[in-house]
Amino acid sequence: MSGPDGKAWQDWAKGSPERLYVVTAGRTRPAAEHALFDLVTLIVSRSGPGPGMHPEHAAILDICTNPLSIAEISAHLSLPASTVTVLVGDLVDGGHVEARAPVRATTHPDVALLEAVMDGLSSI
Question: Residues 2-10: contacts with CB within 8 Å, 24+ apart?
């Protein structure tokens, strides 16, 4: 698995393409029903890691006790966001996590309020 200098193991541990291929079982996209995951989709754990679970799946469950975005999970685990979306899709299918789109503003800002704030700031 490693040469005399241990380089092959270091490459594997640092996210080599071979490791990412194994982690996702060769998949490059989550299942069709999860294709709408984007970088700001929020993920929260609904259960803890189980015995025999892949380490990457367990790590996602461990760090998502509070909602985290796909981008944040990717940064925490040092994995590409595309890999994280595949893994999160697996966890959603298994009922281990819940995925939610971030809450989007449905109303426009009150222009009068913004003008009042700007007037107040300019008078300081």
Answer: none
Q: How many domains does the chain have?
A: 1
112: left (phi over 0), alpha (psi -120 to 50) or beta: alpha
- pLDDT tens digits for range 18-69: 666 566 655 656 665 655 788 899 999 998 888 888 888 999 999 999 999 9
**Which CATH number do you get for residue 70?**
1.10.10.10
C-alpha to C-alpha distance for 53 and 80, rounded to whole angstroms? 20
> Is 99 domain-assigned?
yes
What b/e string do you get for 96-116 counting C-beta neighbours within 10 Å, with b at 16 or more? Answer: bbebeeeeeeeeeeeeeeeee
